[in-house]
Amino acid sequence: MTQDSKHMEVTLETQVESVNLAEEMCLRVAEAAGFGEDDCYRIGMSVREGVINAFHYGNEERPEKKIYLALDLTPEKMVIHVLDEGKGFDLRGVPDPLAEENLLSTSGRGIFLMRAFMDEFEVIPGRTGGAEIIMSKKLPAPGSAGSNGKGHNVEPKKES
Amino acid sequence: MALRATYREAAGVTVVDIGGRITLGEGSALLRKTIRELLEEQRTLILLNLADVDYIDSSGIGELVSAYTGVKNRGGNLKLLHLTKKVHDLLQLTKLFTVFEVYSDESSALRSYK
């Protein structure tokens, strides 16, 4: 972690409200980091899906378990970690929601959405024994279409 | 924003006007409850007007699919009307455009049930 990096983390209860809370928190960070509206939507959705995964599949909706959410903001990217206290899972065992036989499935699209919306995505065994989702989004270049002009990469305006 | 849903009858079809977010929790639950009530009333031709739905997560997508199959299993049909860009893109990404019939104007949608 460099001096220019920022780190924050929060422990969430295994309850539905944690999903909205995590989304709102990450959206604020993403907006402050300079991500434009479309990327904020993708980041917010990915955080939702990560926390839903931890809530439902990882912790099996058991209230005594916790969900750990961490954010790292580096000069290059925003990295999000979602850790549960479940049994962990292997990405290779997750069915493809786009396969013909799965199109009418009522679940199983969360991992797909996170992969689609983020630049990097992986699942590793977590320190709690559960699964740790790690996903990241590159920060938009200053002045690019993906930037909202508020990010820390924005160059100061020159006085005329 | 919490989900809200009201329904009305038009040309023999039940049009459900939905607004807000269809997400894990109350949003998905309200959609499920609304569809269950309609099926209990033997209303099996259903058009979901999603003009004011600006956000759906995977739980909401699952609920839409569940509504679709539930109505189909009762011999009816559930179609979608007025998708916002985000919802449109999400259905395209998840290939659900190949499942749902989607309309951009209500008259055409209602005629399609004939």
What does this protein structure show overall?
The complex is a heterodimer of chains A (160) and B (114). Chain A has a five-stranded antiparallel sheet with strand order 1-2-3-5-4, with helices on one face. In chain A, strand 2 and strand 3 (77-83) form a beta hairpin. In chain A, 29% of the residues lie in helices and 23% in strands. Chain A has helices spanning 17-33, 37-58, 110-117, and strands at residues 6-13, 66-73, 77-83, 120-125, 131-138. The model of chain A is unreliable at 153-160 (pLDDT under 50). Chain B is α/β, with parallel strands linked by helices and 114 residues long. Chain B has one domain (4-111): 2-Layer Sandwich (Transcription Regulator spoIIAA). In chain B, 40% of the residues lie in helices and 32% in strands. Chain B has a five-stranded mixed sheet. The mean pLDDT of chain B is 96. The interface between A and B is medium-sized, with 22 and 20 residues.
Q: SS-based structural class of chain B?
A: alpha/beta
What is the annotated CATH architecture of chain B? 2-Layer Sandwich
Based on the coordinates given, report the CATH architecture of chain A.
2-Layer Sandwich
Q: Helicity level of chain A, as a percent range?
A: 25-40%
Overall mean pLDDT of chain B stands at 96
Quaternary form: heterodimer
Count interface residues per chain for the largest interface.
Answer: A-B, 22 and 20 residues
Features:
heterodimer; A: 160 residues; alpha+beta; 23% strand; B: 114 residues; alpha/beta; Transcription Regulator spoIIAA; five-stranded mixed β-sheet; 32% strand; globular
